[in-house]
């Protein structure tokens, strides 16, 4: 919810400034409207839509054709963590809420924090996939 409020406030502020700039500087207003559209498209492109667990990878599907693929053999462990990790974390933060946060600890590369809608089911399915993978990690 906090992420949605933050994104909406960013879009609303550039839009309101653009409307105000219509009366002051038309070129500035055009730039602000373009910035609003750019921000909206950027938010749509980088906010995770769903998480897919395949036989050899965990796929974090973003907007459009974008996705983050993490090989299961590169996952050391996956664990439930406190909600503040969604906002304050040294690594890749792809969590969209502070509820149900999961940390994916990687063997190589930056660790990833995500927030699946059903954390327990996600961890259970990921654990099954990791056990079936050639070099399995563990889910705590």
CATH topology of the largest domain: PH-domain like
Number of strand segments: 8
| Count of alpha/pi helices | 3
Compute the CA-based radius of gyration: 19 Å
Strands of the widest sheet, in order across it, are 5-7-6-4-8
Structural class of the helices, strands and pairings? Answer: alpha/beta
* Helix-strand pattern: HHEEEEEEEHE
Task: Give average pLDDT, whole number.
Answer: 90
Q: How many domains comprise the coordinates?
A: 2
What key phrases describe this protein's structure?
three-stranded antiparallel β-sheet; 2 domains; single chain; 140 residues; five-stranded mixed β-sheet; 40% helix; 3 helices; alpha/beta; 8 strands; PH-domain like
Compose a concise summary of this entry.
With 140 residues, the chain is of the alpha/beta class. It is 40% helix and 23% strand. The longest helix has 21 residues, at 2-22.
Describe this structure in words.
The two termini are 27 Å apart. The longest helix is centred in the first third of the chain and has 21 residues, at 2-22. This protein has a five-stranded mixed β-sheet with strand order 5-7-6-4-8, covered by helices on one side. A three-stranded antiparallel β-sheet has the order 1-2-3. The chain has two domains: 2-46; 50-139, PH-domain like (Roll). It is α/β, with parallel strands linked by helices and 140 residues long. Helices cover 40% and strands 23% of the residues. The radius of gyration is 19 Å and the shape is elongated. It has helices at residues 2-22, 26-46, 119-132; strands at 50-53, 57-61, 67-71, 75-80, 92-93, 102-106, 112-114, 138-139. The model has no long low-confidence stretch (mean pLDDT 90). It is built from three helices and eight strands.
């Amino acid at each position: 919810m906090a992420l949605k409020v933050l994104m909406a406030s960013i879009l609303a502020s550039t839009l309101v400034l653009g409307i105000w700039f219509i009366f002051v500087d038309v070129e500035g207003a055009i730039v602000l409207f373009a910035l609003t559209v750019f921000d909206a498209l950027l938010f749509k492109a980088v906010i995770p839509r769903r998480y897919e667990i395949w036989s050899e990878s965990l796929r974090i599907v973003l907007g459009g054709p974008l996705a983050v693929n993490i090989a299961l053999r590169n996952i050391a462990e996956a664990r439930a963590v406190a909600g503040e990790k969604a906002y304050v974390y040294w690594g890749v933060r792809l969590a969209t809420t502070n509820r149900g946060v999961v940390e994916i600890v990687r063997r190589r590369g930056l660790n990833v924090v995500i927030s699946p809608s059903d954390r327990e089911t996600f961890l259970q399915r990921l654990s099954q996939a990791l056990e079936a993978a050639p070099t399995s990690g563990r889910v705590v």
